[in-house]
Design a protein that fits this description.
- This protein is α+β, with helices and mostly antiparallel strands.
- The protein has two domains: 3-64, LysM domain (Membrane-bound Lytic Murein Transglycosylase D, Chain A); 88-210, endopeptidase domain like (from Nostoc punctiforme) (endopeptidase fold (from Nostoc punctiforme), Alpha-Beta Complex), CATH 3.90.1720.10.
- The protein is built from seven helices and eleven strands.
- It has helices spanning 3-20, 32-38, 43-49, 88-100, 119-128, 138-141, 199-204; strands spanning 23-25, 62-64, 106-107, 112-113, 116-117, 146-148, 158-163, 166-177, 180-186, 190-195, 205-210.
- The strands form three sheets. Strands 6-11-7-8-9-10 form a six-stranded antiparallel sheet.
């Protein structure tokens, strides 16, 4: 096979693969979790198919929803697959990844956007990517979901603490396993990973809530 013919065949294979790859066009109001559900995927799988994607997707954005680029197109019109609910473990893993992606973001009071959060704005943003809407304040978030004991924590659970002055709920973070949490801590630290064994969090711990089903 001469070089010209080889290049022509290679180009045909690449173009054919791209044509058969399944994609989804983001609609207004979509979150990554909703896109995954619509296409019968877990959020973890969707993130694996789109390794460079950000959580703040926009209408019109093209997302890959099928890695089998060698599949042949069907001659008949197929009905959309009914998405089954992802397992709790896959959703927990996805929450951890979304939260970790924002580590290093600035702490900005009242903010809830990629790169800038306060504590409850951070938890609201992360859970919104999972299709879960939370109230805006940490105090209100403490009334959502169901209570979880400290020894039964799972990644994705919300952790609540007193503020520096004591009293009621004043801070919230997201448990990520191994006795650690991700949270928008203070203006000087931003979004960080902290150990629950730190003296402050031990003495100010109030409780945990599970909002992922």
């Amino acid at each position: 096979m001469n070089l010209k013919r080889f290049l022509a065949v290679a180009a045909f294979v690449v173009l054919s693969s791209a044509a058969f790859a399944k994609t989804y066009t983001v609609q207004t109001g979509d979150s990554l979790y909703q896109v995954a559900q619509k296409n019968g995927l877990s959020l973890t799988r969707l993130l694996q198919l789109n390794p460079g994607i950000g959580e703040n997707i926009k209408p019109g954005q093209i997302i890959k929803v099928d890695s089998n680029s060698s599949a042949k197109p069907s001659a008949s019109v197929q009905k959309p697959a009914i998405a089954s609910a992802p397992s709790s473990s896959s959703r927990s893993s996805a929450v951890v990844r979304v939260a970790f992606n924002q580590v290093g973001s600035r702490y900005v009071w009242g903010a809830s956007r990629p790169g800038a959060f306060d504590c409850s704005g951070f938890t609201s943003y992360v859970m919104r990517q999972m299709g879960v809407t939370l109230p805006r304040t940490s105090r209100a978030q403490f009334n959502v979901g169901r209570a979880v004991s400290r020894n039964a924590l799972l990644p994705g659970d919300l952790l609540f603490f007193q503020g520096p002055g004591g009293g009621g709920v004043g801070h919230v973070g997201i448990y990520i396993g191994n006795n650690r949490m991700v949270h928008a801590s203070t203006p000087s630290t931003g979004v960080i990973v902290s150990s629950l064994s730190e003296r402050y969090y031990v003495s100010h711990y109030i409780g945990a809530r599970r909002v992922l089903k």
